[in-house]
Design goal:
Number of strands: 5
Strand content: 5-15%
CATH superfamily: YbiA-like
CATH architecture: Orthogonal Bundle
Number of helices: 7
Strand order of the largest sheet: 1-4-5
Shape: globular
Structural class: mainly alpha
Order of helices and strands: EEEHHHHHEHEH
Radius of gyration: 23 Å
């Protein structure tokens, strides 16, 4: 969402045996905001990577998200004509109430989750960056205290941090899916070995 630039990203502690834990073993926060910051700028929806979503290709995840706010295709196209993701967000925030999809308040979080899934599914390097954060708490940090910043991130440690929460949910989903994928061949191999042993035992008995 469109917010004022904030502090630099938190860096992993070099003194800690875990890349995102401090010396006491507590999980550290990874803060992000500016899309051009390294290494965690890609977590911002303003980061420039195309996202294929619902049959359209958007220049950024911000464009893909904000397009869902429009009631009519003409309004959506007007939002998407914005040359930058920040301007697309500004255009969407400024819509008259009658130009906003009537169920937007109920559907916006689901849309954001699906947009994020598409973004990280389609870009391996971004997915690996997300997974590299381990168990760290991801926080979008703003400096201007307003409702948008407090909803999608935090200001002075206060806010719902919904973007950070959704990224952590997505990270957990990737970890779970990888574990399931790894377990399937192991189970298949175990079944094959059991079947072979059973067949061998039957052969011995028959002999």
């Amino acid at each position: 969402m469109t917010k004022t630039p904030t502090t630099a990203c938190a860096r992993p502690s070099k003194k800690s045996p875990h890349p995102h834990r401090n010396a006491a073993g507590s999980v550290q926060d990874i803060q992000f905001y500016r899309a051009n910051e390294k290494p965690y700028g890609p977590f911002s929806n303003l980061f420039r990577r195309p996202v294929s979503f619902e049959g359209l290709v958007y220049p950024t995840s911000e464009h893909a998200y904000q397009a869902g706010k429009a009631r009519k295709p003409a309004v959506r196209d007007w939002i998407l004509s914005a040359p930058t993701p920040a301007l697309a967000a500004m255009a969407a925030h400024g819509l008259y109430v009658w130009d906003v999809a009537p169920d937007w308040a109920q559907t916006k979080f689901d849309r954001m989750r699906r947009v994020l899934r598409a973004k990280f599914d389609q870009h391996e390097d971004l997915r690996q960056l997300l997974l590299s954060t381990g168990e760290a708490r991801l926080v979008e940090v703003g400096t201007v205290n307003n409702a948008v910043n407090r909803l999608w991130g935090e200001v002075d440690g206060k806010g719902e941090n919904m973007l950070g929460v959704m990224l952590m949910e997505l990270r957990a989903a990737y970890v779970k899916e990888a574990a399931v994928a790894t377990a399937k061949p192991a189970r298949a191999g175990s079944k094959a070995r059991t079947k072979a042993k059973t067949k061998s035992a039957r052969t011995v008995v028959a002999a």
